Amino acid sequence: MAKPKVKNNLRRLRFEAGEMTQQELADRVGVTRQTVIAIEGEKYAPSLELAFQLAGAFKKPLSEVFSYE
Amino acid sequence: MTQLDMHYHEKSAWVCAAMTLSVFGPYFVSLFWWFDPDQVRSIWLMPPFVAAVGLYALLITLTHVYLALRAPRETEQMDERDRAIEAKSSKYAYGVLSTMIGTFLFTPTPWSRELNFSVTSQILLFCFVLSELVRFTTVAWSYRRGV
């Protein structure tokens, strides 16, 4: 069975939100910039709480920010 | 992001792994390879042990002060990813430590025939240092490759 992957649209959403930087997004949700980089690179799957915070930062529903395959 | 864009905690792990290998690698190689069990029992182990630990503490302190001065804000930050990596590395390190100690207790070694406090303490120290090396390399690997 393949390892499940959580995909995200953070990079696109940052661009659409006035070219928000990774540091700005990290500061908004209370994580490090390197964690944002890891999430965007799908090297780290955020917790449910952090996922909701990230979605809230863009004022988007969770399903529009993250997807599960 | 460049490949060398590291957070303080990742840099710390790399530094600790390198220092552990650099200091305790030669220490244990010289202890277990060059000395036979009779000599390990008879030599006075405290000076080299104190020197190794003192050197390790000094190098670790200096490098971490340097890293902290370069990015003081990062030393206080520890988010969920950092905590997840720390938990994973602790789990692996403890597994290695418990396995090695259990193996040592039940496996004959060249020094088993006449174990004394000095030899036993050095073997246990080796087990601890190796488990810490596993911890540091697991942290560094997890930051680079993902949790």
In short:
Chain A is mainly α. In chain A, about 55% of the residues lie in helices and about 10% in strands.
Description:
The complex is a heterodimer of chains A (69) and B (147). With 69 residues, chain A is mostly helical. Chain A is built from five helices and two strands, in the order βαααααβ. Helix content of chain A is 54%, strand content 9%. A two-stranded antiparallel sheet of chain A has the order 1-2. In chain A, α2 (22-29) packs across α3. Chain B is an all-alpha fold. Chain B contains six helices and no strands. Chain B has helices at 8-33, 37-42, 46-70, 72-76, 80-106, 117-145. Chain B is globular. Chain A binds chain B through residues 22, 30-32, 34-35, 37-38, 41-44, 46-47, 50, and chain B through 1, 5-7, 10, 74, 77, 79-82, 84, 143, 145-147.
Write the layout of secondary structure elements.
The complex is a heterodimer of chains A (69) and B (147).
Chain A: E1 6-8, H1 10-16, H2 22-29, H3 33-40, H4 48-57, H5 62-65, E2 66-68
Antiparallel strand pairs in A: 1-2
Helix pairs in contact in A: 2-3
Chain B: H1 8-33, H2 37-42, H3 46-70, H4 72-76, H5 80-106, H6 117-145
Helix pairs in contact in B: 1-3, 1-6, 5-6
Characteristics of this structure?
heterodimer; A: 69 residues; mainly alpha; 2 strands; B: 147 residues; 0% strand
Secondary-structure class of chain B: mainly alpha
Number of helices of chain B: 6
How helical, in percent, are the residues of chain A?
40-55%
Q: Level of helix content of chain B?
A: over 70%
Instruction: Classify the beta-strand content of chain B into a percent band.
Output: under 5%
Choose one word for the global shape of chain A. Answer: globular
Distance between the termini of chain B: 18 Å
